[in-house]
């Protein structure tokens, strides 16, 4: 009898800076602690309160280039002047073990993962209710200069132009409503036919209990 195990799910959540994806992702991880989180490698400097290996793996530009040359990344891209990348070994191991992974990456990384893992990737884009509201949120954080905020808004416009590469678009105009939508996407994706086909096959073959 077959003992095929469902493969893991790769849930990619992207948004312009300030649209609220970090808060939404943290909520999802709290409710579903079994979902892993991809800790990216980056060449940017740690911000106050960040810990190496928790928010990011902080590496030098030289080390990042060495890893890229050795094909150690499942995806990597330049974002806001710094390099970010996802360890390929993390992705392949999670998929083989049937573990789900949450990614907080931009459209470039999502595009690369979709190209490599078309059956396992679900792409979600978090939209701000308006660019004016996005600017207000960025200013409320009080962490960036006017020049940096202006640049982030410019980048946001270019990122929004890639909305059609995503499977789901969620407007974060109200946190609870946006989270309910993200949660619904994740739970629905877990029950896609491509993921649960092994269960149906087990039943057809007469296996009473699944081996996992």
Automatic annotation (TrEMBL):
Gene Ontology CC: cytosol
Top-level taxonomic group: Bacteria
InterPro entries: GK/Ca_channel_bsu, Guanylate_kin-like_dom, Guanylate_kinase, Guanylate_kinase_CS, P-loop_NTPase
Pfam families to which the protein is assigned, alphabetical: Guanylate_kin (PF00625)
Entry's EC annotation: 2.7.4.8
Subcellular locations according to the entry: Cytoplasm
Binding residue positions for ATP: 15-22
Annotated Guanylate kinase-like domain residues: 8-187
Keywords: ATP-binding, Cytoplasm, Kinase, Nucleotide-binding, Transferase
Family designation: Belongs to the guanylate kinase family.
The protein's role, per its UniProt record: Essential for recycling GMP and indirectly, cGMP.
Listed name of the protein: Guanylate kinase
The organism of origin for this protein: Enhygromyxa salina
């Amino acid at each position: 009898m077959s003992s095929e195990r469902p493969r893991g799910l790769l849930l990619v959540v992207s948004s312009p800076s300030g649209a609220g994806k970090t808060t939404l992702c943290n909520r999802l991880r709290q409710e579903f602690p079994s979902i892993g989180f991809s800790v990216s490698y980056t060449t940017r400097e740690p911000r106050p309160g960040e810990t190496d290996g928790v928010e990011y793996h902080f590496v030098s530009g030289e080390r990042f280039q060495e890893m890229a040359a050795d094909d150690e990344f499942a995806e990597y891209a330049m974002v806001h002047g710094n390099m970010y990348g996802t360890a390929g070994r993390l992705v392949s191991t999670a998929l083989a073990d049937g573990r789900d992974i949450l990614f907080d990456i931009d459209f470039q990384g999502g595009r690369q993962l979709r190209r490599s893992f078309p059956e396992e990737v679900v792409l979600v884009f978090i939209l701000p209710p308006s660019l004016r509201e996005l600017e207000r949120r960025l200013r409320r954080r009080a962490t960036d200069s006017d020049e940096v905020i202006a640049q982030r808004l410019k980048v946001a416009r270019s990122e929004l132009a890639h909305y059609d590469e995503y499977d789901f678009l969620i407007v974060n105009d109200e946190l609870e409503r946006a989270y309910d939508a993200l949660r619904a996407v994740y739970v629905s994706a877990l029950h896609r036919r491509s993921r649960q086909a092994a269960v149906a096959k087990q039943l057809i073959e007469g296996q009473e209990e699944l081996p996992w």
